[in-house]
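step 4 of 6: structure.
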Amino acid sequence: MATYIVTSDRLAGFNRGDVFESTDLDADIQRLVEAGHISPQGSKKSAKTKDTDTDKE
Amino acid sequence: MATSVYLSNPNVTINSVALQDQCTSATVNYVYEQLETTAFGDTARKFGGSSVVSLQNNTIEVELYQSYAASETEATIFGLVGIQTTIVVAPASGSVSATNPFYTLVGAYLESHTPISASLGELSTVTLTFAGGVLTKTTT
């Protein structure tokens, strides 16, 4: 599921800077990206965890 | 007392983009095609009937000021030509209610757009007709 950030003041129901998932919006996402209203967010890898008692990753 | 309505601060969104501050005119046409059901024995023409459901043939026409700035009219509209999109028009800017119904046309097709339509000394405008799709009226 793709995540997007709102980059204009015109997206109905959202404010600039809001982050949402593609399923939250019933619109043509590609056209909104092309028009500059939203921008895809890069997916972040989850951080590695380390057990501090055993030092095992 | 009779009341009249004019749209001074409506809600107009095209593909979820709020464009009412660029909009000067909006017309929602809610149409079911007229199917004739007249038969022998009738004394007058008849159309439709309780068991006859015709196709919707809806249109929404809007007039917008043209703007080539970022995230404005041209950037929003140009990519919608030739595809289906969703248009929402409501009489006022507030939330949906019985006195502020939202008219939503889903699957509307924008056939054409005039990116440049300008005359000396006048603000440039574009008139868009979104055709087809299913119109719903929401009051809650």
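step 5 of 6: annotate
 - The interface with chain A takes residues 13, 15-19, 70-71, 75-76, 78-80, 83, 85-86, 88 of chain B (CB under 8 Å).
 - The radius of gyration of chain B is 18 Å.
step 6 of 6: archive
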